[in-house]
Amino acid sequence: MKNSLDENQIKDRIVSIKESLGKKLLILTHHYQRKEIIDMGDFRGDSFGLSQKAAADRDAKFIVFCGVHFMAESAEILSSPHQTVQIPALEAGCWMADMADILTIEKAWNDINAVIHDESIVPIVYMNSDAVLKAFCGRHGGLVCTSSNAPDAFQWGFKKHNKIIFFPDQHLGHNSGNILGIPSEEMIVWNPEEPLGGNTPESVKRAMLILWDGYCLVHTRFRVEHISSMREKYPDAKIVVHPECTQEVVKEADAVGSTSFIVKYVKEAPANSTVIIGTEINLIDRLSRECEDKTILDLHYSLCPNMFKISIENLLKTLENIGRINVVTVLEAIKKDARSALDRMLMLDPKKV
């Protein structure tokens, strides 16, 4: 990439490449991307919406995913053989995804099955995970979920199984379990560094939901005291938060939902209202610009540094080397099983796919 190009020249060059490739190119942008990245994309959404788009588009030869690595992996898993998936920054990872690995998941699976004996258990994995963990779920009859459909995924699991092990986000798990009315004593957290996850055999047998001890550093920055403080300052405001927040924060909020839910919530809020949001700051900043008839505030400043690794500079470099650099690949053996888990997710609500 030529360092002499200024921001407007970079954007003009991106637009020119997009025009020359036409339908052969699809640029997907996550809601947490900066405005300049969103502006260059063809489709914006949360991880569920982007997964749908990647699965449905068969015209594109090149899919450039402006998000973190696990999202681009999912697009690659769902892609057709003629498609190439690229990410502008290969190093854009996810702390939460790194909190679970295949060795500790397999050990937990074996330890749990040794305790529950003839009871059935199904694994459900959050989209925020490596492809090998999605493949694990595919092999064991499970599926992937996102923050948009986690309660639906849990309901799906309980139709055939006594128990669910959900990884890696304990907070999305707790909040989804609360929506379904699962008693707190029947939801346990599994710490992979402790024998039997830090639980007793009796508590494992009693549990309906076994939740991995993982979390999102962006959303666990929000605290109940942040809500209390904002309610004092803005008593008429509504507070909406993401389900990766702790259940204590969710309980004090007015609404909870995925990034797409939050966008819809803000767009549908009455004019001149105040909405306070507990999620990644780039989405909040963009909603503030797009909804000038409302006051949009952040519950507490929280930036995802991995999403921030995507820039217009490395997006241009990727487009100038389309199909050649930062290509995301998944081994066929892993891809097959992971595809099964993702397909089950996409079939949760046929009206949406």
What does this structure look like?
The protein is of the alpha/beta class. The protein has three domains: about 5-95 and about 305-330, 3-Layer(aba) Sandwich (Rossmann fold); about 95-215, NadA-like (Rossmann fold); about 220-300, 3-Layer(aba) Sandwich (Rossmann fold). It is built from 15 helices and 13 strands. It has helices spanning about 5-20, 35-40, 45-55, 70-80, 100-115, 130-140, 150-160, 170-180, 200-205, 225-235, 245-250, 260-270, 280-290, 310-320, 330-345; strands spanning about 25-30, 45, 60-65, 85, 120-125, 145, 165, 185-190, 210, 240, 255, 275-280, 295-300. The strands form three sheets. It has a five-stranded parallel beta sheet with strand order 6-5-7-9-8, sandwiched between helices. Strand 12, helix 13 and strand 13 (about 295-300) form a beta-alpha-beta unit. Helix 4 (about 70-80) crosses helix 15 (about 330-345). It is globular and about 65 Å long. The mean pLDDT is about 95.
Task: Annotate the secondary structure layout.
Layout: H1 7-21, E1 25-30, H2 35-40, E2 43-45, H3 47-56, E3 62-66, H4 69-78, E4 84-86, H5 102-116, E5 121-126, H6 131-139, E6 143-145, H7 150-158, E7 163-167, H8 170-179, E8 187-190, H9 201-206, E9 209-212, H10 224-233, E10 238-241, H11 247-252, E11 255-256, H12 259-268, E12 274-278, H13 281-290, E13 295-298, H14 312-320, H15 332-346
Parallel strand pairs: 1-2, 1-3, 3-4, 5-6, 5-7, 7-9, 8-9, 10-11, 10-12, 12-13
